[in-house]
Amino acid sequence: MIEEQKFNYGKLFLIGFGFFGTSVLWSLYNTYVPILLEQKFFLDSAQIGFFMSLDNIAALFIQPPVGAWSDRLRTKLGRRLPFILIGAPISAVAFGLVPLASSLPLFVACTVTTILAMAFWRTPVVALMPDVTPSRLRSQANGIINFMGGLGLVLGTSIGAMLVKQNQALPFWFGSLLVLIAAALVLIFVREPKVYEDNPNVEKPDLWKSLKDLFTSKYDGAIRIFLAIFFWFIAYNAIEAFLSLYGINHLGLDQSGAGKLITSVGFSFLLFAIPAGFIGAKFGRKRTIGVGLLIMIFVLLATYFLPKETLIQVHGRLPILGDIFTLTILLLLAGIGWACININSLPVVVDLTDPIHIGTFTGLYYLFSTLAAIAGPNINGWIVKLTGNNYATIFIIGPIFMAAALVMILGLKSGEAKLVTEDSSAS
Predict the structure, then answer these.
(1) What's the CATH number of domain 9-194+209-410, 1.10.150.20, 3.40.50.300, 1.20.1250.20, 1.10.3210.10?
(2) How far, in Å, CA of 101 to CA of 137, rounded?
(3) Residue 292 and residue 286: Cα distance in Å, rounded?
(4) Cα angle at 161 between 261 and 314, to 5 degrees?
(5) Span 175-198, average pLDDT
(6) Is the pTM of this model over 0.85?
(7) I need a surface site. Which of 23, 30, 39, 226 has the fewest CB within 10 A?
(8) What are the tens digits of pLDDT across the range 349-382?
């Protein structure tokens, strides 16, 4: 039984190490893989966009079914932790081999193995949070989990930016090491609730039935939040996949400086992750997400329309972020907006269903976000290519899809916290 009063900070921070590990690896992957593709294998922007979505195409067929599988799994270790035990070491080893690949086929093999292994354990590790947290506290809890994710992003990209100056492979090896440490902490210290008794009268989690039910009245308005997730992740992934190349090719930054652009987003996301959860709990999840979308629309439009000279104007220097450009300030603001969106979206999703189906709905969350991760880089890759390698154009589609997500959120009628006691476990 989840008791409404309990909020186990220690357990949530430990669970957060799982998300910390995935964020370290994803941030380094999205920062340095595009650079290797351009500089080592001489791919153009359209080819890079396709490559950056190729792994997500494979993950599309893994993350959602794994979520439903983890709902049904019963082992002595639990129903989520076995996936971490298998997936984390494989992803760490494969990621460490990426910069050593001397041919494109070998490079593809290493990167795809990395992402397939990550997809295998990402949904279960995220589903741990709602497993141990009552409905009304899930925004705050997701803030803690994403704080750890933001910490992983900032450490990964900031330290990676220093390491890449010494050797291009060091950021990858650093990321692999942190993934192994993070996964080990989760496996050693986290124990899952064991209250999900086998009951022949209880409907078994079924991914495809749940997906079909999204388009019916069974889950009131659920399709709106999933479409919103799809739209805002198209915008975010389309830009993230090319942000380092934008810094190098449009702004004239070196690899280290370009790598720190995504650090700026992660830094403010880190600082605002926990506050965003409490704001969502106090003022409403949907309202907080809406404010975040408005912030993102403003930032993306400003970045697109401001001249390059203004964007790279230096206003100071900070130890982690380096030179503080006008663009850095905009990206810091973007991190706050993204926190308002991201922290409150998963709690909306899991509160559309019951505790038995949390993994399934977490899988659906990743189904729509992964579809967006496929579409976004491809769209921007072709836009850059068709505009003569004008990397400033990566900011064109962002405001459009963020606005579409805002329309979906404004029409959403469900997804706020439930004030009733739920049948799950917090122990």
Answers:
(1) 1.20.1250.20
(2) 45
(3) 10
(4) 45
(5) 84
(6) no
(7) 39
(8) 888 777 777 777 888 888 898 889 889 988 998 9
